[in-house]
Design brief:
single chain; 140 residues; mainly beta; Lipocalin; 14% helix; globular
């Protein structure tokens, strides 16, 4: 009987875990998106041409600000010398995993589906005509 009592008390001690009175809350998708991201890759579902990221785009950055504004930076190497170094726009994420963004020079939002969003990576699918591009960005 004493052995059973000891076993029960040991079992009880091993199965209880201390509670964390101040757990760290997980970040929301909006909180995770905010910040500066550097393009890592762009892949298409097009047969024979899966990689679509030209060398001149590999230093491009995008910054999503808390106020819904965004900045796109062409980096040190521009694909077109006539492009502005910095362009501005707006973004919104009202219905995650849908992300919408619009450069100020356009009138319509581009709608993409976020397939990964964490502290390090932003990855989304963007339909263009009959193709789907998967873009991966790494937090700067």
């Amino acid at each position: 009987m004493t052995f059973c009592a000891l076993l029960a008390s040991c079992s009880k001690e091993n199965t209880t875990t201390p509670s964390n009175p101040n757990p760290t809350p997980e970040k929301t998708p909006l909180e995770l998106l905010k910040g500066t991201w550097k393009i890592e890759s762009s892949i298409s579902n097009e047969v024979g041409n899966p990689s679509t990221l030209p060398d001149c785009s590999k230093d491009n950055l995008v910054t999503f600000n808390a106020d819904g504004s965004m900045l796109a930076d062409e980096g040190n190497v521009k694909c077109d010398s006539m492009d502005a170094q910095i362009s501005t726009g707006t973004w919104k994420m009202a219905n995650y995993p849908t992300l919408e963004f619009k450069p100020d020079a356009t009138t319509e939002f581009t709608v993409v589906k976020v397939i990964q969003l964490d502290e390090m990576y932003l990855k989304y699918e963007m339909p263009v005509d009959t193709r789907i591009y998967t873009l991966t960005w790494k937090r700067k």
